[in-house]
Amino acid sequence: MLKRLFGRGSRSAAPRDTDADWEEIGRSNPYFGVLTDPRFKTENLNDEARAAFFASGEGDIGRASKVLKRRYSDFAPASALDFGCGVGRLTRALAAATGDAFGVDVSESMLAEARRSAPSGASFGCNLPDRTFDWIVSIIVFQHIPPERGYPLLKALMERLAPGGFITLQFALYRDPRHSSVPGGRIVMDQDFTLVSNVAALRDLAKGEMVMFDYDLTVITAILFAAGITDLELSHTDHGGFHGAFIHGRKAT
Questions:
Q1: If you placed Cys at 77, which of 49, 134, 177, 189 could pair as Cys (CB 3.0 to 4.6 Å)?
Q2: DSSP label at 13?
Q3: Strand (E) positions, 77-149?
Q4: Under DSSP, is residue 83 helix (H, G, I), strand (E, B) or coil?
Q5: What is the domain extent for residue 181?
Q6: Bridge partners, residue 239, by sequence
Q7: Residues 90-108: pLDDT tens digits?
Q8: Could you tell me the CA-to-CA distances from 171 to 145, 220, 234 in Å, in that order?
């Protein structure tokens, strides 16, 4: 399911095979590919750096939990799906929080590393499970997937959200003018919003490059609303001039 939705077998419609990029990153720099901090490069990775890496996932899940608990007093998910799990940075924290967390990723190399030290309650795979979850989480993932592939994936994820279930999602939406040359579908904010396309530049990049894609918030909310997730909270994110939003919400019961 995941590989089909990611576009294998229909790459002519996609500007780039990002699956191949992430498999290359997973083989060479799996931790740095998730968090681009020099401490997490393969040649620098040690026990201290690895502990800091997973502690960052605990921090992200802790902050998301606080947002949802503040908004929904009965927030107490018993299962979670981590989409784009990489080496399990968030999956491990979700397993500790819920007791049942599944991480899904397109890179077999990333998954192999995630399974190497998986804690109790955490499992991993390359396909979306045929079941529902109480909490679906995806952070710093969709921004690396071409939107024409990402929107169907978002729909598939929302089909796996249990009634009354919660979401924590993050999307890139637009960027500062200084990033206008960064390859990927994008919206650059200058005097006003200008839609820019640079498909040719994507084809010229070597395999294993990390590409940024911006999403249309109107399309995102349309997908969420259609799935019964109409109660939403948005907060601004800024990763060095790449602007986006965290989206927290709940599906109707």
A1: 134
A2: G
A3: 80-83, 101-104, 122-125, 133-138
A4: strand
A5: 2-250
A6: 242
A7: 999 999 999 999 999 999 9
A8: 10, 9, 11
